Structure formats: C-alpha cells, structure tokens
Amino acid sequence: QGGSTITQQYVKNSRLSQEQTLSRKFEELFITLKVGSEMKKKDVMAGYLNVSYYGRGASGIQAAARTYYGVDAKDLNASQCAFLASLLKGASYYDPAGAPEVDPVQATAAKNRVRAEKRWKWILDEEVKDGRMSQKERDGYTEFPMPNKPKRAAQLGGQIGYLVNTANAEIYEHTKINKDMLDQGGYEIHTTFDQTKVNQLSKAVKRVYDENIDPKKRPEDTHVQFGGSSVDPKTGAIQAIYGGVDATRHYQSNADPTGAAVGSTFKPFVLAAAMEYGKRDPSGDAEQDESQRTKVSPLSIYNGANKLKIKKYNGDVWTDKAGKEWLQTNDDHESYGNITLREAMQWSANSPYVQLGMDVGTDKVKKAAIAAGLKDDRYMADSSVPSFSIGTSSPSTTSMAGAYATFAARGQQRDPYSVTEVKKRGKPEYQHKAVTKSAFDSVIADNVTDVLKNVVAKGTGTSAQLPGREVAGKTGTTDDNLSAWFVGYTPQLSTAISMYRLDDNEKHKNRAFEKMYGTGGKDKIHGASFPAQVWHDYMVEAMKKEKAEPFPKAEPIGDKVYGGGASQKPSPTPTPTPTETETTKPTPTPTPTQDVPTPDPSDTCGTWGWNCQNDGGANAGTVQGNDGGTDTGTSQGNDGGTDTGTSTGTTGGDDGSDGGTGTNNGATGGNTNGTGNNSTGTTSWWGGTTG
C-alpha cells in the first residue's frame, strides 16, 4: 500500500510514522537498504505480515485471522490466506462487507465482493505459477471463502456510530488521513455535535415512530425510515443528525444521501433564482444577460391552472425528445387561476413554479440551488426537464438543512461541517477553516424567508409552528408517496427531516422505495404530517433556552410580472383547506433505484482513482426525467396532502396536500448547549481520545 517493495512496506509499517515528508522518505530508504542486507527474505515477509493492517482494526496476520475467520493464523487454509492477502491491496475496497462511509460509490459490499474474489483467484493462480501450490490443490478451492460479518462495537450503538462515520468521512475528504490510519488509533477528534440536541432529535423521531408506526399491525409500516440533520446558520456547524434506529443494526446513515427525492422543498431555490437572475425576455435568445431579464417579485402573478401546458421562456410549447408535451397537474387536479408566487408557495401549487423555472431557466435554478449549498453530484437531478424545479433531486438532509441555513443567514453560505480539529499525540493534524460565501443578496434571502414564513403561518406548514417564535419552512412529498420532507429554520437553527420506506437489508435484491399509502394508519404520508411533527417536537426542545429572534423584514424586490398565460387581472384564488385526506390516484412511476451504476476503474482512471466517476451524471433515488422519451420527474402540488414525486408521461404528477394537522401546541422546552468541542473516544464519543 504505497511502498514499492515488501521490505519498504515492512520498514514503513514497523519502524516509521505514516507522515508523508521528504525526510521520512529518505529515512525509509536508508533503513530499507540496511534491513535488506541484514535480514533474510523469509523473516522480512514474516515481519511484514505481522505488522500490516488488514482492515476492521486488525493489525498483523493473527489479528486478521481472528477478526475475519475466528481462528488462529496457524489454522487458516490456503484459500483463506489468499483472501487475507488481497486485503493488503486496501481493505476498504477488498473487504466484502464494504466501506460506504469511505466511498459510497465504489466501496459498496457488492463491488468489494467482486473485487476481492477476482484478487483471491489471481493470488491462488500465482501460487501455482510460483510452484508454491499444486494445481490439484488449487482446483480444490472453487468457492470464495466469505469472511465473517464485521462485529459492530457496542460503543457505536444508537446515534454514536453515525456521528463517528460523519466525522470520519469529513476527515478523509479534507486530510491525508485514511481509514486504515484512523482504525489504528492515536487521533483526537473534536466535533461540532451537541450531545443534547442529538438526544433530542433521536427522542423526537422515536416518539413519533412509537406512537404511529407498528410493523406488526400494518404491513405498510414495515421498512419505515427517518433521517434528520440540524445546522447552525451562523457557522455551518452540524449540531445534530439522526442516521437511523441504531448504527449497529442499520448501518447506512439516513442523514447522508439516500436517494429520497426532496419534492416541493426544492421550490425556494426556484424563487431565489427568479429574484437573482430574473425572467427572460420572450423575444430574446435563450442566453440573456441581466439587461434583458426582469427581476421577479414574489407578488408576481402566474397561471395556477391544472394540466397547464408548460412552455419555453419564448412561448413555444416545451416538448421532450419524443415530441411529447408536458402538462403540469396540481393536487386533486385543482385549478387555482391566477395566483401570486407567494400564494403558490403557501399552497405548493405546481404549475406556477414549473413555468417560472422555464421562464428563468432551469440552469439558473440549478445554479441557485448550488449557490445555496447543494452539491452538483449524482444526487442532483437532470436540470434539462421542467420537473427539475419541483424537486426530483435527492440531496442529504444535511445538505438541505445547510442550504436552508443560507436563507436563515441572509444569503451567507457556509458548508456544513462536523470536525473542528484533529490532533495526533497533541500535534494538530487538521483544523477547520471557516469559509463564508455570498450566495444571495440579503434582500433576496429575506424575501425567500418571508415567503416561507407564510407557508408555516398560513399554508401547508402550520403543524411546524413554534409558540412565540418565527419559523420559515417548506413541506415536500414525492410521487406515489415514496418520500416526505419538512425543512425549516429559525434564525438560530436549520433542520431537515426526511421520511420514506426502504428495506435496509442489502442481501435482498431489487430493493426500491416503497409507497407510504396506509403507513401509520394514514391514507397518505405528507410532509406536514410525521416529518413536520418530528421537526416540531425536536425544535421545541432544541430552541428552549434560545431567545426568540425575529427574521429581518423583507424589503420589496423585483417587478410584478405575469407568467404562464396569466392575465393582469388576477382571478379569484381558491383557498384550499389543508387536509390529510387525498383521493387523487397518483401517476405511476418507474421503480426508483438507490444505487446508481458507475464505471469500474479504467486504464485512464487508475485502480485507486475512485473519484473519477462523473459526479454530474446519473440521477439517484426517485427516478428522474428521461430526455429520450417519456419524461419522468417529480411533480409536486399542494403540500396540503402529499407532494407527489416522479410522474411519468406527458402529464406532470399530482402533488398531494401536505397540510392539515393544524398547529401542534405545547410549551417550549429543552436545552441547547451550543457547539461543543467533542472528541471521539473508545468509551464515549463526547470526550477522550481514540486509542
């Protein structure tokens, strides 16, 4: 793993530190020459095997034999030895258990199994070629010696394992420290996690789950998952996450990207883009500068008709590559007539925001989402189709909490982070450096906040109201009721909650998101129901000791424009009553996939160049639009029931009603401890050092 010879690797692992400096390299060279001249090759090999790292915290062949097969090294057979030898190539990519926390794309259990078996076969064949094994013995090893499943340390139970993996992933990304080095211990890691808030979030999820979800009573309650993240808008510090029921049972953190599309919670980025870049001049070219565009006011009027025929910015009817038009539907197929963008956000009407995205340019909508903090990776959906504006993307709860935190911070964007400092033997190895970017002018951010305040005060988000506090937020649910979200914030804290059904047993083939009709005894699951309830219950406690702060007053911005064929005399706008009962049959959607295939390493993308995949490529999660034929894309509607997600064909899918639970009353209570300097530890995540 880095040394050019076995002797070099033996010297590096047994007699030197792992630091990458010129002086250490020279020292390694001289010691290697001395060892090579004084030690027999057999002894060097024995030393190498006894000090090398095999993954899962096992250093040395004896520890590896016990860890992977539960036997002493002397009792291993040649087939098992060949597998253990393959781990020396890099345990994170050759352990069949997988290491998604290191590389969620290439280090999956399935890909590691293929890689390990190929290497195992090669090693056995080389043994025959070198005369160390007879062909007859080789022919007896036909079945891959699958190792034991890794044992999850008891101290990583509950949320601790998710916190550790989140911090470790950040360390891998920002330092030269790798998983093998961390596993061998000696590091002191300081984090941003607030133990009180982590416990409060976990309790809020458990309370909602225990009171409503019963897999023994209802098959629709099986495989229910929640995810959550809470970010400080002023710093970007991740104060809490909810990764799942227990890190020793449900391994992949639900605070990371899961493939669950965000639905209507994406609409604020459309509004921000409209205020930032403006509506294009229908008589101009597709690419227009600021002088040709008109900045859009939230009081602009758009056509809220059901089955609105979506048009390009210049008035031409939009069609996909197969020539099919896009007819955007609203929840319950209700037509709103001419409606302001503010009201359209309040009731989560689809057609105004889909057309607005076309008028501004979906490329600009994507640019605004990225400016707010979302990543342009495989979880960012295809931005060339109209449905992009209503949430076909599937970022993590941490990314969504961070992006909304940008609005809470008046347009100042800070990437969410969890590690403040890493030390080894008292010496700093890494320190977080705060980077603040100006994503939007404060006037734009304040107007987005003002519109989202209205959602919570009067619209689909009333169930997230906090007594005595101003709250801004948005509900979202996806097609066929495959996922539901609530993302909201106060001036001091931004929190995102997701909910979906997905079998987390990786052994089961063709796993896919499951519909939530009937889950929890509800006809449908809405962003305003269980996700908003978790958000509310957590935030009541998390904000208890924080002073109630108002949001800045939103100053007027942009011009009152008309879109989607809206006339300058607004028609009466229906005022829907948020409800949890929805009777519209959703548009069928293709089966979503959680794992987007990526190319295997090629000659130009070396064996260890795991980041060579196209991060802007495939869409994950709820199936995205298909430019080559039927366009599929999340289609949101009134979040007064269920924001339906992906809709297939020429008609945009219905978005259910994500509201109707009313205001959840209750005294504000709880604790906040602020950002703490917590350290990983062998006995407690909240203090100590790794051994």
What does this structure look like?
By secondary structure, the protein is an alpha+beta fold. It has two domains: 6-166, Penicillin binding protein transpeptidase fold, CATH 1.10.3810; 204-295 and 305-648, Beta-lactamase, CATH 3.40.710.10. The chain has helices at residues 6-15, 22-38, 41-51, 61-69, 78-87, 91-94, 109-129, 135-139, 160-174, 179-183, 195-212, 267-276, 341-347, 350-360, 362-372, 397-408, 442-458, 530-542; strands at residues 187-191, 224-231, 238-242, 301-303, 308-309, 327-328, 338-340, 412-413, 419-424, 427-431, 437-438, 472-477, 483-489, 494-501, 562-563, 632-634, 646-648, 678-679. A five-stranded antiparallel beta sheet has the order 3-2-14-13-12, with helices on both faces. Strands 10-9-1-18 form a four-stranded antiparallel beta sheet, covered by helices on one side. It has a three-stranded mixed beta sheet with strand order 7-4-15. Strand 13 (483-489) and strand 14 form a beta hairpin. The two termini are 23 Å apart.
Labels describing this entry:
691 residues, Penicillin binding protein transpeptidase fold, five-stranded antiparallel β-sheet, four-stranded antiparallel β-sheet, elongated, disordered C terminus
Q: Kindly report the spatial arrangement of strands forming the biggest sheet.
A: 3-2-14-13-12
In terms of per-residue confidence, which ranges show pLDDT below 50 for 5 or more consecutive residues? 577-691
- Gross geometry: elongated
Provide the helix percentage. 25-40%
Report the radius of gyration as a whole number of Å.
Answer: 27 Å
Number of strands: 18
The helix tally amounts to 18
